[in-house]
Amino acid sequence: MNKNKRSLLINLALAAAFFTVVAAIILSRPAPDLKVGLAGLPSDDAVLPVVWGDLGGRMVQSGVIDQGKFEALYASRGGLNPEEKNLLLGRDDNRLKITSRNAGYLLNLFWALGLGQKNPIILSGEMMDPRYGGGGPPAGGFASTGGWSLAAGSAMEHYGKHEFFTLTSAQQTLVEKISRGIYRPCCDNSTHFPDCNHGMAMLGLLELMASQGASEEEMWKAALSVNAHWFPDNYALIADYFKKNGVAWKNVDPRKALSAAYSSGSGYARLVAEMAPLKRGQGNSCSI
Fold first, then answer.
1. pLDDT of residue 23
2. Are 23 and 232 in contact (CB under 8 A)?
3. CA nearest 151: which of 71, 58, 67?
4. What was the pLDDT predicted at 12?
């Protein structure tokens, strides 16, 4: 065994031990009242600085979303409601809203968008680095690619192949900057390395916001609201952490809350180790 492999195995063993300890803490501590932790979280109906337009229909036309597969999935969940069907096949020129009811649906739509939209972040970034092959070819072995089973053909047939909109150099620079600062509690990677559905969906949202001229402040604020809807229990605890340290959620700097120190898997685990955790609820998993 060479030195690099031995070092990697040691690091993996240490990480496993750390999260085992965190899990033990979670199981051993009583959960506080959920209402306390949720106090001050973003509104259930958060308006995002984007207009969806006919993106759903264009993604269906491109094949990154296979209409039959998509509708079959939701038929098993009770079927698409009128709002969901309109986002998939119609047109909506109002600003998009995310709620606790549609968060999972928007997650899948933005996942398809981030996967299919041509962008240097997924074509030449960490996703294409052989060092992070995910057990398969560059980009092909991750949850965000292998897990997208709702395309016409394979997900990789659509990976970065479509231009649903274009970004100026300034807009691309903004997406690059913000994507490197947004983390998610399911792993330790930033949105710039969108190896799971949440990362790929957030990238799609950032690209769409930038393409429509959203400001940097609007993008950070929207990203925090969306992450809070996709990981409601995690951000309930994060909000409670800030509250106990004298900062109301409405006054929290999105850059800080979304940073690795709070929103990454290891950052969140640190908070858990300091606070009694909330019971797990209906957050969105890293699958369709």
1. 35
2. no
3. 67
4. 38
Residue 287 falls within a domain, yes or no?
Answer: no
At 181, phi and psi to the nearest 5?
Answer: -105, 0
Residues 19, 134 within the same domain: no
Q: What is the rounded distance in angstroms from the CA atom of residue 99 to the CA atom of residue 45? A: 5
Structure tokens at 209: 């916001």
CA nearest neighbour of 19 among 269, 275, 277, 280: 269
Query: Does this model's pTM top 0.90?
Result: no
Question: What's the domain range around 71?
Answer: 34-274
The token pair at 76 is: 């098993």
Is residue 264 assigned to a domain?
Answer: yes
Same domain flag for 205 and 219 = yes
* Helix spans in 181-215 (H): 197-211
How far, in whole angstroms, is CA 1 from its chain's centroid?
A: 36
Model pLDDT, residue 287 = 67
Measured CA to CA, the distance from residue 103 to residue 190 in angstroms comes to: 20
If the chain, 288 residues long, is cut into consecutive pieces of 10 residues, what is the mean pLDDT of each piece?
42 39 33 36 78 98 98 97 98 96 97 98 93 73 94 97 98 98 97 97 98 98 96 92 93 97 97 71 62
